[in-house]
Here is the input.
Amino acid sequence: MAEQRRFLSAAGVPIALRRRQHSASCRELAVRGPRLQLRSLSAVTSAVWLAAYGLFALSENSMVLSAAIFITLIGLIIYLHFVKIDQESLLVIGSLGIQVTSSYASGKESTTFIEMAQVKDVVINEAIHMQKVIYYLCILLQDPEDPQGVSEVVPLFQFCFHGNNLSTGRVDSSRKEELQATIGLLDRSVQKLSRDPGAEEDSSSIK
Amino acid sequence: MAPGSAQGAPAAGRSGPGMQGGGPAAHIVCMVSDFFYPNMGGVESHVYQLSQCLIERGHKVLVVTHAYGHRKGVRYLSSGLKVYYLPLKVMYNQSTATTLFHSLPLLRYIFVRERVTIVHAHSSFSAMAHDALFHAKTMGLRTVFTDHSLFGFADVSSVLTNKLLTVSLCDTNHIICVSYTSKENTVLRAALDPRIVSVIPNAVDPTDFTPDPSRRDDSTITIVVVSRLVYRKGIDLLSGIIPELCQKYPELHFLVGGEGPKRIILEEVRERYQLHDRVRLLGGLEHQDVRNVLVQGHIFLNTSLTEAFCMAIVEAASCGLQVVSTRVGGIPEVLPENLIILCEPSVKSLCDGLEKAIAQLRSGTLPSPETVHKEVKTFYTWRNVAERTEKVYDRVADEVVLPMKERLDRLMAHCGPVTGCIFAFFAVLNFLLLVFLRWMTPDSIIDVAIDATGPKGAWTKQYFLGKKRRAKEELADS
Here is the structure.
């Protein structure tokens, strides 16, 4: 049983959210970003080539042209393999944990697993990112030494929602106290996504 | 860390933002200032208290300031007051550097996502406040500015700041000053039409400053001074007063709270005249400790050389102290004559004033702290300030924002040929930058922020309970 809904990401591009219920305690959420546009690809390629021809006309060195070929090819490979994420999915298994998978355009997949015992909470937080103020969904990880503490903040669906990477935040000890104060507030305020997978559908409330 | 929020019955009558209903519409106000908590001072508490009282009256208020150390991002204070700590570089004295442009993307994003209708900037020392005014005018929002300080006219730095103020305020919708002296000063400095300048004094929270006669030692006479130890506060006068009075009155003690570059002068005086047991320097005070220091004294001394509106003397009078102060700036407007002894800003005049106060104290003719407190309590309340500020907002909301062409004309006509042209050019650049930003991220794709302000805010407990119950019902149905 799967259903699909369309939304706009924070950057204004269309994205699709697919939900799949595998069993009562297991459910999968996948967000698919837009495909690589032929238009933007050809725009970038022609820009590089025009620049190369300009340089060639000035320097009359054919090395420039071969360098341009290599730059376009290697750039494309790096972009497809390390930058462009096609789909991000979240597999939530009730008693076990959360598996976060991102699939790159080249087919490469990277997977992280978060054990349920480590998950302290799932919240929507508000932050200033670059020149924007955004809402983002994140998992708070339990600090093993301190039952009240948070050791790490893992943002979810970052590429599809925001178009770039919010790096995973490691919380050092000097900031811990302040973060806890914030989380105290969050607990009272941000709509809490309860830990049972039944309520996970709130994640779609981000536009 | 934030002082207790204003309690009491929330005033009804205003329809909340986004709600239909009778009564005048609520405003969505964005307070911008470089100075806000955790920094401590008059402007900071003014912004906080005013925001709290406006929220109580049904408006939506948010505060924008720069990041303080690790305090970056979005925070919530009592009753859902949202504070944006923007990561902008601090240049000097907690004021951010300004290029007039670099803060536009973030401020525009905030103004759009919060659906701000009025931008209220505070303090002429704050570069961010001026930036915000500039951007708000470019975006066609209504603007209000509150001036908290007095300036001179003669030295180079005042000439420059006054010019900037002229540019910044010539097309601002309304200006608020804290005293009539301050209004006169601002009107002259910025060459304004006095009709768009209102006077709304500051207020103190009378519940924070209550007298406690049991804390004072009646076998001695204690003079309290609480101020930053800087030149503007007349610390050089204080260093002349202390030895003179201490020689005359053996039972006199001084209690000095505050920190600053002039502390060294007081320490020298203490050293030279061997007054270690009679002059106590407490160093920097937290806002909540001020009351505990005030109630230990009999007389409060203020030696300021310039002051727009002196909060410290109202706080002291509210604690039941006899106030002796210099007659400068807006101080004579602040308290009625029976509560304050005014002197010229000279050592001799201040000593005379203090001697008069000591004589009254000895003869027992001073009113009791309780009666003074009761009298002062009614003078300056934040609710009253909020009510009057609201009137300014109502008036501003009916005004039109100058379109670009008129704004340029005004700038060039008002600010002199050179400055006017330069800033008109900047205004055009700013507008082009705004057009570019609107093209990059159109207003329509910017998320609208959840409104968490006030008792009806989205994040109160009831909302959660309702939400959870609904979620459960949905689960049960499916």
User: Anything to note?
Assistant: Chain B has a mean pLDDT of 85. The radius of gyration of chain B is 25 Å.
